[in-house]
Specification:
Two copies of one chain form a homodimer.
Chain A (H helix, E strand, L loop, with lengths): L7 H10 L7 H13 L1 H18 L1 E2 L6 E2 L13 E8 L2 H9 L5 E5 L17 H8 L6 E4 L5 H14 L5 E4 L15 H9 L5
Helix pairs in contact in A: 1-2
Keywords (chains A, B): DNA damage, DNA recombination, DNA repair, Metal-binding, Zinc, Zinc-finger
GO biological process, one term (chains A, B): DNA repair
Pfam family, one (chains A, B): RecR_HhH
């Protein structure tokens, strides 16, 4: 026994849960005891949901989203605007934009950012697929919704260069003051960008 | 869609994971994406481990420990000292004492503490079972390893009164300076208790 429950089954469950982001050994032990106490309401449904996910979840071959169907629900939704493709780094970014209902267009998940130091080049991301989709005459705008980090912006510039030949319109998210944000807590770069992009009141 | 993934299966998985202690909606979303990326190494094993736990985990009818067998591995281990029973509030406390290899005796999990305000009385805890076990002539010592909280100590006093008639020896964990602890950060009660219980050097 290497420091957890007194049964090997529970030990294994604790070790697996402890590998989830945001959980460590201590919180995994608490989670397991909580699961055992809530057997009907939580343990059984969670086991079923995980088994269903393991069996059915797939990656959309068009946009890189995760779903139980391929193409995903967004790619196959006729109400979606086929003319715009919103490019994100990760599926979590796609989810965030969907929660905000920020776009009615389609998505394209890159799967990360260019990072030569980590050995991540253009071939490791879904960039060639994006160029192919952008070549479709029905697509008129590519929105680069990558993170405002050095890696994100580097990737955005690289993609913009490649898209230049296709003639498609390339846009990016605005920089500015977060809604509800206080100026005093903002960094200089954001304040300067918000000032440059000021709009009529 | 109430703010998570774009598929109902993933939405349900996120909602279930978010109900674990230590996880919220955001970390549950991260956990699900992590699980999908680590399908073979984490998602499938975790689904199996949860299903196995749901099927096999039971509560030891003797001591209240959780295990896949009843009586549990500790209660049925012949190398364990049958003469001492260590009383704890929760299974997590039992696990902590086992990790510390603090006792070679048996355990008794109360399942909580007396708490009149929350409507938890003696009948809601495994106290009658404990009195029954303490009446066994083979048992010579009851170690009260409850938390050093008001509720824990109240429960300890209640149990001690009940055990008085059995004539069994009742002990409790020592108060004192935690190993590796700094005096300057300790509360007055602990320092005073450590001074009272000082030992020859």
């Amino acid at each position: 026994m290497n420091g957890s429950a007194t049964s090997p089954e529970l030990d294994r469950l604790i070790q697996l849960l402890a590998r989830l982001p945001g959980l460590g050994p201590r919180s995994a032990r608490r989670a397991v005891l909580h699961l055992i106490q809530k057997r009907e309401q939580l343990l059984l449904p969670l086991a079923d949901a995980l088994a269903a996910a393991a069996e059915r979840i797939t990656i959309c071959s068009t946009c890189g989203n995760v779903d139980t169907v391929d193409p995903c629900a967004i790619c196959s939704d006729p109400r979606r605007d086929k003319a715009t493709i919103c490019v994100v780094e990760q599926v979590s970014d796609l989810w965030a934009l969907e929660r905000a209902q920020a776009t009615k267009g389609h998505y394209h998940v890159l799967g990360g950012t260019l990072s030569p130091l980590d050995g991540i080049g253009p071939d490791d991301l879904r960039i060639a697929d994006l160029i192919g989709r952008a070549g479709n005459p029905a697509v008129s705008e590519i929105i680069l919704a990558v993170n405002a980090t050095v890696e994100g912006q580097t990737t955005a510039h690289y993609i913009t260069d490649l898209l230049h030949e296709t003639g498609v319109r390339v846009t990016r998210l605005a920089h500015g003051v977060p809604v509800g944000g206080e100026l005093d807590y903002l960094d200089d770069g954001t304040l300067a960008a918000a000032m440059r992009s000021r709009t009529p009141f």
